[in-house]
Amino acid sequence: MKKEILKVQSNERLTDTIYEMKLSGCSSMLPGQFVELLIPGFSLRRPFSVAEYSKGIITIIYKVTGRGTEEMTAIKKNAKIDTLTGLGRGFSLSGSEHPLLIGGGIGIAPLIYLARVLYEREKSVKILLCGRCKNDLIKREELKKYGEVFYATDDGSCGFKGNALEAAQSLFKQTDHYYACGPMPMLKALAKNNNKGELSLEAHMGCGFGACMGCSIETTEGPKRVCKEGPVFLASELLF
Ligand SMILES: Cc1cc2nc3c(=O)[nH]c(=O)nc-3n(C[C@H](O)[C@H](O)[C@H](O)COP(=O)(O)OP(=O)(O)OC[C@H]3O[C@@H](n4cnc5c(N)ncnc54)[C@H](O)[C@@H]3O)c2cc1C
Ligand code: FES
């Protein structure tokens, strides 16, 4: 973990409620790790997954859900943000030649950086993007560069009509390892059906770096902290 002052390069709207922010000055981030931004006017930092990282610039993709993320939408280019970087344990990057990435809603964000790195390691990547409707399926064009992309929506407006687990069934047969990020019910359903995967979890966080135990979850090896031992866990170790 490092405390760094990052400079906003851009902060653009992607959909009605989802924005993309790029910040420079970050020393290191691995796929699946997260940052904690101190949004001006707030005392509690907000955690966000890294959606891309290259040459010191991180991208975060955030959904407006409350006061902090609403405030973020007004942050201008060149603003400086006090940030904790390189937080948590990210995705494992080896072990599968045919990985399947499953993203639900804003959970697609951390899979972009992961997909690029796996593609650069010459893995045969399949990506399943899931949402309530097609507007939830962000970054479709970018992800097509890194693998074969499939879609599932609850309302059938794009791809398979149904939920992530239903859509994943046939793809599970073509992979030996999956990576998933999305809403907790989706992750729970995937893990119960197939435990050969890694799940990126969210939890309400206090400190964000392992000091307060506020983000503990139950695992087969006892309680673990989402911010420190996670946010990525093996599906086989989680007790939902
Ligand atoms: C490791 C991690 C990575 C995350 N990555 C992303 C990301 O890439 N993009 C993104 O949009 N969001 C991400 N989140 C969720 C994001 O941190 C919250 O949406 C944000 O902190 C809400 O702040 P707020 O002030 O707008 O909302 P608040 O006013 O604090 O709360 C509004 C709503 O958001 C919920 N919420 C608040 N904090 C969290 C939290 N830590 N986890 C889940 N729900 C929360 C509250 O229960 C409430 O329903 C991540 C969370 C974690 C723990
Ligand atoms: S948020 Fe404090 S230990 Fe995880």
Structural class: alpha/beta
Mean pLDDT: 97
Q: How much of the residues is beta strand, in percent? A: 35-45%
Uncertain stretches: none
CATH architecture classification name of the largest domain: 3-Layer(aba) Sandwich
The strand count comes to 16
The biggest sheet, with number of strands, parallel, antiparallel or mixed sense and barrel status, is:
7 strands, antiparallel
Strand order of the largest sheet: 4-3-7-1-2-6-5
Q: Helical residue percent? A: 10-25%
Assign the CATH superfamily of the largest domain. Nucleotide-binding domain of ferredoxin-NADP reductase (FNR) module
Oligomeric form: single chain
Named CATH topology of the largest domain: Rossmann fold
Structural notes for this entry:
The chain has 240 residues and is of the alpha/beta class. It has five helices and 16 strands. It has a seven-stranded antiparallel sheet. The mean pLDDT is 97. FE2/S2 (inorganic) cluster (FES) is lined by residues 205-208, 210-215, 225, 227.
Question: Main traits of this protein?
Answer:
240 residues; 16 strands; seven-stranded antiparallel β-sheet; binds flavin-adenine dinucleotide; binds FE2/S2 (inorganic) cluster; seven-stranded mixed β-sheet; Rossmann fold; alpha/beta
Short synopsis of the structure:
This protein is of the alpha/beta class and 240 residues long.
Which SSEs are present, and which pair or pack?
Blueprint: E1 2-13, E2 18-24, E3 34-37, E4 46-49, E5 52-54, E6 57-63, H1 67-72, E7 80-87, E8 99-104, H2 109-120, E9 126-131, H3 140-144, E10 148-153, E11 160-161, H4 164-172, E12 177-181, H5 184-193, E13 197-200, E14 216-219, E15 222-225, E16 232-234
Parallel strand pairs: 8-9, 8-12, 9-10, 10-11, 12-13
Antiparallel strand pairs: 1-2, 1-7, 2-6, 3-4, 3-7, 5-6, 13-16, 14-15
